[in-house]
Write a structure and sequence with these properties.
The complex is a heterodimer. Chain A has helices spanning about 40-45, 70-75, 90-100, 105-120, 135-150, 165-180, 190-200, 215-220, 235-245, 275-290; strands at about 1-10, 15-25, 30-35, 55-60, 65, 75-80, 155-160, 185-190, 200-205, 210-215, 225-230, 245-250, 255-260, 270. By secondary structure, chain A is an alpha/beta fold. Chain B has five domains: about 1-265, no CATH class; about 305-475 and about 490-590, no CATH class; about 850-950, Neutral Protease Domain 2 (Neutral Protease, domain 2, Orthogonal Bundle); about 955-1090, Neutral Protease, domain 2, CATH 1.10.390.10; about 1090-1205, Immunoglobulin-like. Classes of the chains: A alpha/beta, B alpha+beta.
Chain lengths: ~290, ~1200
């Protein structure tokens, strides 16, 4: 559905945010996983026509996104990582305004769309309140409502759950899951669990390149039998980092639980566990971290 | 303290790194430089006052503090707001930095940055005189100390005050917008004090309201002479000190309030958000509806009209819902009410609030609407970004115009609303003043439609600019510079409306002539600029920032691609329309009409003088009889004139050549404003018995050589045919004298004259030097000057026969008796003949008039007026009778059989005395509203003055020597005062003279040339009218009315209708001396032949009761007399003069004073020094005074009156 080829974006200050990125995204939920600064938001903004890349191509179905951004916008829903709202404007009025911008010229059809969406994201009760006073979760639900105006076939959601409490986060992800049939939903995050729960496909991005793609299950299968765990004292961490390919560390009851990657049993008290997507993610990033 | 210093220093360095700081400094330096270096913009210098006079430096460095309001908003308001905006606030607030150090450290840094940036102003002022390029005669010795003094004593306090005000406002409101509004309010306070509260009746106290202190400094120095302005630094004491203390107090209070209101850690918006959140109902995770909610895709692929309305509504609500807008609107409303309430009034006269006056007031006050247009363009263009919703908006499929067009439409609606609000305010003012002749149609057509149109053009420009610039501030600054350029470029000679955005040729308003053809002319420019605005809008569309912010260069690179298709065609179409209209306008302005700019006129006049002035010495014949036929076509507009001039050699020698000249298109600026001379095209010219010997086509000047020189006493005839017309329209100088209804032309503009025209010559010293002429145009000597009257060298009184042909539905008027009238279809011909020889200086008028006729003895008094302007017609007739009675009884008989007052359109604001006829502007009396008890009856004043000219100009005419206008203007002034005194008593005359004294004292320091004595006065209106009136009234008081009138009668007997030799001011002085007693001779010397100022003072008054119920009042009186030289340097002289000593119940300088409050007035002879004086009164006085009615010119008139102690 969405084909991205050899995308390069160099910012005026020389930062190479996208470095020959190539990616093929099928319909359904697609998770884009990557650390801060990996180029996720640049990629999202570029696909959303907000930024013109230095070179490369983006094709969505029949649409050549870079030469005809207008065509993509007509079928695009975009929820940026961070957005504000006009002061003193209610959720209803704001959605109505965006509906106009998305092409709903007639008042009656606009009303239908706005009311349906307000119901769908469960903001009907607060439709006349100013969005400026919404909580983070409500604001994100408003964000997804606006992204869904106009039956988009491509929905881009940039780190939507950052800062949400688990309940709100869950509610939000359910909303996303509901819409993802027959639609490409690109969803970026650095929270691995969200991807594992929701996405049919995922890609890991680092330093402006895609370093892995596949279904979460395939990716997990790649590390099958290669992840080992051990619980150690804090003081021993440095030595373990030096001696093993430590991919994650986590505190548990005052001691440190480490996961390391190894094709064979490293011994020294390590036990084998079933790796999850998080292990895949960090193992992917490991060589890069080493290089840095 | 260390912490404080650190915070302040950090802030200061931070500001210094900002490009805004350097940009602003450079712009201020350039602007300050330009105001001094340019010859055309003269603030506080010019004439006798050096560009770098201490006074000029002081005022000029203060003036820019008004604009520093923007500096303060940029540098100081942001020091606290920055933390809120960037979200860095919580980090700062979590440090142990004390509130005091945080707030005032930041403030100090910001204030120091403002002050440092403002150093550019004195620097610019200094560079203007230090660098070569300006006329060295206009530069005095350079003292760097004056600049430093100005900066530290005058500017820094003001900068502190405005910095503190905006800092406090920003700290308290946490809103940049609020500080903008604050800035607007401060500017409005300034405008209000400088235009309204600066009127003399409000006195010194009112100037304290000016937060910049400029009004106070101007008040304190208003009577300064040129010498004082050049040598003294304005006193930083008294009034100015009070003003500074008052406003510094206000500033400190504001800072204290800011400190109190500042709560650590709280940042405005975040607080609000929490509050809003708490109020929300808790939304439970109710089961949702099935997911397949049917959301149909939009039915239309392109946005039609419906969405435009919806989007405009959205943008509009964004503006209207903000409290800022309500504040601005309310403020604009109050401002309009004030402006409208005062419209047309000046310090001494009030008018009926006719719709024209209301509209003119609204058209002039355009600061706030321009601000609204520029400000909301910035707000709307940047709003999505500032609200951080731009990414969502930009990713929608809406076309770019959907962002642009609704914003322009929303601003237009806002401006329209302001226009409607202004009209409502105007009608409310009219009704409140009890005026019910409201012309709603005029409001729509004369004001609302063109005004809103122009404002929208500015809004489009502002939107375009905001699309280009990287920051809203920069955009506002650019627009401010555009406005400044549009104001100042015309005075530098760049005045074509083809490049001054959104300007049109002027559309003067008149009740008589409506919009005339002027609105139709202006419409071409409007269409031209509208086409350009369309291009701007399309370019803004092409350069619109969508998506991640792209620098201008990148957007420009993409522009060609963006403009492919309809936008490109739109630009091409609008460009074609613009080019076509521009071509048409150019054709009209420069091919059909090549009307000169003011600068071109100056250059031409200099060339004229260099080429032709030497011919002025050659004797020429005089015109003795004229015939003139004028075919008037008001609607074309044109006047075709034919005529003859009979000339006679009145000299004793033969004359070989006759010089004939006729008017050349010219623009001049004088004390009555801009004077436009339209071109006269000479169709034919023949001089009997002479051939053309030399032609100067550029100067409209020809020399004819007689085949046989004209012998003394010989007469010849000159025949001419000429055309004055306008084809198409002009950039400036559209024909305002031949118009549909209200034609008014002078005979010398439609017929040739003999010799060169001295009226075209340059007078201003600086201008003359600039064009390589001697600084002063030498006047004629006494002997040569007495040969001519000062109006026309080529004519003594003439016999005239005038035939006017014009529309049959208008009244056609020329001087003399109407002897025949023939109507031929839509045209009529009316013939007039002079009853007696008259000045070859008369007017022709034509309009649809209503007429009121009356008689005084055998003189017919006729008022021709616009039918709606009947308010003062009876009063004009009544005053004319009084004046005719006084003048005939005391001077001589009236020479004509009619006296006509003829209204003309408000394009000029004056009245003028032609033989038996007074053209009288609709703006100069017909709509005046007279309050006899507290005001001055200006109808009587103007009418009696112009009628007096029938004696003091048309009977006794001054020679062409300095001082001879005393014979016309000063004597007309005296005659008028006598008529007014007889009608209303002395109180009104005293009110009139009080304002005259103030006018004289204020103007003399600012005059372009050195101050002359009354005896030698030339163009100085403040001497011949204002000082002249005071002098004559004082003489009448001292010599007696009968003696003065006897002297004037002797003048008439000697000079009236006699022609050469003409009278001079010395003849008047001699006549007065002949009637004066020996002890009055010195006074005549002091008043006429010297510049004399008096300093009279009364104090220490005490009243004691005498037996018999009387009171003995003692006071100390001190009289000083000062002679000023022409530059204003004063020297005290011994005094021995007679003064009034008066005792009153009410202070006679106050409005509450009535004649019944006078207890006693005695005359006392005083010499120099302090004297203890005692007078006896019947009642106990509350006030006593020396010269209480201000008969002597006294720079400090306040101390003439003193309260009486018990």
């Amino acid at each position: 559905m969405l084909k991205i080829e050899n995308l390069v974006h160099v910012y005026p200050n020389g930062t190479r945010a996208l470095d020959g990125l190539t990616l093929d995204i099928p319909p359904g939920m697609f998770g884009l996983l990557g650390p801060n600064g990996a180029g996720k938001s640049t990629l999202m903004r570029t696909i959303s026509t907000l930024q013109v890349p230095t070179s490369g191509s983006i094709q969505f179905g029949e649409i050549d996104v870079l030469s005809d951004p207008g065509a993509l916008r007509r079928t695009l829903g975009y929820l940026p990582q961070d957005f504000g709202v006009y002061p003193r404007v209610s959720a209803y009025d704001m959605l109505d305004h965006l509906a106009v911008l998305k092409g709903y010229g007639r008042r009656s059809e606009r009303r239908d769309v706005v009311e349906a969406l307000l119901n769908q994201v469960n903001l009907w009760a607060v439709r006349d309140k100013a969005i400026a006073g919404f909580s983070g979760g409500m604001r994100q639900r408003f964000g997804i409502a606006q992204a869904l105006i106009g039956q988009p076939r491509l929905v881009i959601v940039d780190e939507p759950t950052a800062g949400l409490d688990p309940e709100e986060s869950n509610r939000f992800l359910n909303l996303l899951a509901e819409i993802s049939e027959n639609v490409v939903v690109i969803f970026s995050t650095h929270i691995v669990q969200d991807i594992a729960d929701l996405c049919q496909n995922t890609a890991i991005i680092a330093s402006g390149r895609i370093v892995r793609t596949g279904t979460p299950d395939d990716l997990v299968a790649e590390t099958k039998g290669r992840v080992w765990t051990k619980t150690i004292e804090k003081e021993a961490l440095e030595a373990h980092r030096r001696d093993y390919d430590v991919i994650t560390t986590r505190l548990s009851g005052g001691r440190t639980v480490i996961h390391a990657l190894a094709d064979t049993d490293p011994g020294n008290g390590f036990t084998r566990i079933d790796g999850d997507l998080e292990d895949v993610y960090f193992s992917t990033l490991l060589p890069l971290r080493r290089a840095a | 303290m260390g912490m404080f210093r650190h915070v302040a220093a950090f802030e200061f360095r931070y500001q210094l790194r900002s490009p805004v700081f350097w940009g602003t400094s450079i712009i201020f330096a350039i602007l300050a430089y330009a105001t001094i270096a340019s010859d055309d913009i003269r603030i506080a210098w010019g004439g006798q006052i050096f560009r770098n006079a201490p006074f000029s430096i002081a005022v000029n460095s203060m003036v820019w503090t008004i604009f520093a309001v923007f500096m303060a908003t940029a540098f100081v308001s942001t020091v606290v707001l920055r933390d809120t905006e960037t979200g860095f606030g919580p980090i700062i607030h979590a440090t142990p930095l004390s509130k005091f150090n945080y707030l005032f450290g930041r403030f100090t840094g910001g204030f120091l940055a403002t002050a440092t940036a403002y150093l550019s102003v004195p620097l610019g002022l200094l560079l203007a005189v230090a660098l070569p390029g300006v006329d060295p005669e206009t530069v005095g010795p350079i003292h760097v100390g004056d600049y430093l003094l100005s900066f530290f004593l005058l500017c820094v306090p003001t900068l502190f005050i405005i910095s503190a005000a905006f800092f406090s406002l920003a700290t308290m409101t946490r809103s940049l917008v609020a500080t903008y509004v604050g800035a607007l309010v401060v500017l409005a306070i300034y405008l209000f004090t400088s235009t309204y509260l600066s009127r003399p009746e409000f006195g010194a106290g009112a100037t304290l309201a000016d937060p910049f202190g400029i009004a106070s400094i101007e008040y304190a120095t208003r009577h300064w002479s040129a010498f004082e302005r050049n040598t003294l630094f304005p006193p930083v004491s008294g009034l100015l000190l009070q003003n500074r203390i008052l406003w510094l107090g206000v500033a400190l209070v504001l800072l204290a309030l800011a400190w109190r209101s500042f709560a650590r850690g709280a940042s405005g918006p975040a607080k609000k958000q929490k509050a809003g959140q708490a109020a929300l109902p808790r939304v439970n995770a109710t089961p949702r509806q099935p997911t397949n909610v049917s959301i149909a895709p939009p039915s239309e692929r392109s946005l039609g009209r419906g969405p435009l309305a919806a989007l405009t509504r959205h943008e509009l609500l964004g503006v209207v819902r903000s409290p800022t807008f309500l504040v601005i609107l309310g403020f604009a409303f109050i401002n309009s009410l004030v402006v409208l309430w005062l419209a047309g009034d000046d310090r001494v006269a009030t008018v009926y609030p006719v719709t024209r006056v209301m509209i003119e007031a609204l058209l002039v006050s355009k600061t706030i609407p321009l601000f609204v247009a520029a400000f909301y363009a910035g707000e709307l263009v940047w709003r999505d970004r500032e609200c951080r919703i731009n990414e969502i908006i930009d990713a929608t499929p809406s076309p770019d115009w959907a962002f642009l067009l609704p914003k322009i439409a929303a601003i237009s609606v806002v401006l329209l609303a302001m226009g409607v609000m202004n009209v409502t305010a105007a009608i409310a003012v009219q009704l409140l003043k009890g005026f019910t002749e409201i012309e709603v149609y005029h409001y729509l057509l004369w004001y609302l439609a063109p005004w809103v149109f122009t404002m929208i053009l500015y809004a489009v420009l502002a939107v375009f600019v905001q699309t280009l610039v990287p920051h809203k501030f920069v955009g506002l600054l650019v627009i401010l510079l555009v406005f400044l350029a549009e104001i100042s470029l015309p005075s530098m000679g760049f005045e074509s409306h083809l490049y001054l955005y959104a300007t049109t040729s002027s559309v003067p308003l008149s009740d008589m002539n409506g919009l005339g053809k002027f609105a139709a002319h202006a419409a071409w420019y409007r269409a031209y600029w509208a086409a350009f605005a369309v291009i701007l809008a399309l370019l803004a569309y092409g350069l619109w920032r969508r998506g991640a912010s792209a620098p201008l260069v990148a957007r420009l690179r993409k522009l060609p691609a963006r403009l492919k298709g309809r936008a490109g065609w739109g630009i091409a179409g609008a460009g074609t329309v613009m080019a076509a209209l521009g071509g048409f306008i150019f054709y009209n302005n420069y091919i059909l009409n090549d009307f000169p700019t003011f600068n071109e006129s100056q250059r031409w006049a200099a060339d004229y003088e260099k080429t032709l002035l030497h011919y002025d010495d050659d004797p020429q014949p005089r015109i003795t009889d004229i015939t003139l036929e004028a075919d008037i076509y008001p609607d074309v507009p044109k006047i075709l004139s034919r005529g003859t001039m009979t000339i006679e050699n009145k000299t004793t020698a033969p004359i070989a050549n006759v010089y004939v000249s006729w008017p050349r298109a010219q623009v001049q600026k004088s004390f009555i404003g801009t004077r436009v001379t339209p071109e006269l095209q000479l169709k034919s010219l023949s001089v009997a018995g002479a051939k053309l010997a030399k032609d100067y086509p550029d100067f409209n000047f020809r020399i004819y050589r007689f085949d046989k020189p004209m012998a003394p006493g010989e007469r010849r005839v000159i025949r001419f045919e000429a055309l004055r017309d306008q084809r198409g329209f002009r950039n400036t100088g559209d024909e305002e004298r031949i118009v549909g209804n209200g034609t008014f032309v002078e005979n010398y503009t439609i017929s040739p004259s003999l010799g060169i025209s001295r009226w075209t010559l340059l007078e201003d010293r600086a201008t003359r030097r600039k064009f390589g002429l001697t600084p002063d145009l030498a006047p004629l000597g006494e002997a040569q000057g007495r040969k001519f009257n000062y109006i026309r060298h080529d004519s003594d009184p003439v016999n005239a026969e005038i035939l006017l042909t014009g529309p049959a539905d208008q009244t056609l008027l020329a001087p003399g008796e109407q002897i025949s009238r023939k109507v031929n279809g839509a045209r009529q011909s009316v013939r007039f003949r002079s009853e007696a020889p008259m000045m070859n200086f008369f007017s022709i008028q034509a309009a649809r008039y209503a007429v009121r006729k009356d008689r005084w003895n055998d003189v017919s008094i006729e008022v021709y007026h616009h039918p709606a302007h009947r308010y003062n017609v009876d009063r004009m007739i009544d005053v004319s009778k009084d004046a005719l009675a006084y003048y005939t009884r005391n001077f001589s008989p009236y020479q004509f059989r009619q006296f006509r007052i003829v209204e003309f359109p408000a394009y000029g604001k004056f009245a003028q005395a032609f033989p038996g006829t007074v053209p009288y502007s609709e703006a100069a009396g017909f709509i005046l509203k007279i309050d006899e008890s507290t005001g001055v009856d200006f109808i009587s004043y103007v009418t009696a003055h112009e009628l007096a000219h029938q004696w003091w100009f048309h009977q006794v005419t001054g020679a062409d020597t300095p001082g001879s206008t005393v014979l016309s203007e000063t004597l007309a002034q005296y005659s008028t005062l006598m008529v007014m005194e007889k009608r209303y008593g002395p109180a009104m005359v005293q009110r009139f003279l009080k304002s005259a004294a103030d006018g004289y004292l204020t103007t003399r320091g600012k005059d372009n040339v050195t101050e002359p004595t009354l005896e030698k006065v030339q163009e100085q209106a403040y001497v011949r009218y204002e000082k002249g009136g005071i002098v004559m009234y004082l003489l009448k008081d001292r010599m007696g009315e009968a003696a003065v009138n006897r002297a004037l009668r002797s003048l008439i007997a000697k000079f009236a209708f006699k022609g050469e030799p003409y009278a001079t001011s010395s003849d008047l002085i001699a006549a007065l001396r002949a009637e004066a007693r020996p002890d009055q001779q010195q006074l005549i010397t002091d008043l006429f032949q010297k510049i004399t100022l008096y300093d009279l003072k009364a104090d220490n008054a005490r009243a004691t009761r005498l037996s018999g119920g009387k009171w003995r009042v003692e006071l100390t009186a001190e009289a000083r007399k000062l002679y000023a030289d022409k530059k204003g340097v004063e020297r005290e002289a011994p005094i021995d003069e007679v003064f009034d000593i008066g005792a009153f119940e009410v202070d006679p300088s106050t409005a509450a004073f009535r004649p019944v409050n006078v207890i006693k007035v005695e005359k006392w002879r005083l010499r120099s020094g302090r004297h203890r004086i005692a007078i006896v009164t019947d009642r106990r006085p509350s006030f006593v005074g020396l010269d209480p009615y201000l008969k002597y010119i006294d720079r400090n008139a306040q101390d003439n009156i003193t309260p009486v102690a018990r």
